Amino acid sequence: MKSRESLVRLKEFQVKEKQRQLSQLQLMMSEFERMTKELENQITFEEKKSGISDPAHFAYPTFAKAARQRADNLQVSVRELKVQQDAAELALEEVQAEFAKAAALEERDSGARMRA
C-alpha cells in the first residue's frame, strides 16, 4: 500500500513541476514580448529623431539598426518558446492523467482497507 501512496506523491510532484515549467515559459514569453515593444518604441524614436525610417538608407541610425536586430531575435525566441510551451502543455496533460489514475487506485485501495 505504501508504494501506491508514494506513486501518488510522485505523480503529484511531477504535475506541480510541469506546471512550474509551463508558467516559467509563459513568463519568459511575456517578458520577451515586453522587451520587443520597448525596442520598437526606441526604434521609432530614433527614426523620428534622425528623420530616416528606411533601414536600407546609408544614414539609418546604427542604434535603430541594432535595436531592430535585437527585436527580431527576441521574436524568434518567442516563437521557439511557443513550441516548447506546446510540448510542456502536452507533457502536463499526460502527467495529470497519470496522477488521476494513481489517485483513483489509491482511493480504491483505501476504500477496500476501510471495508476490511
TrEMBL record:
Q: Which residues form a coiled coil?
A: 15-108
List the protein's name.
Flagellar export protein FliJ
Q: Which organism is it from?
A: Rhizobium herbae
**Keyword annotations of the record:** Cell projection, Cilium, Coiled coil, Flagellum
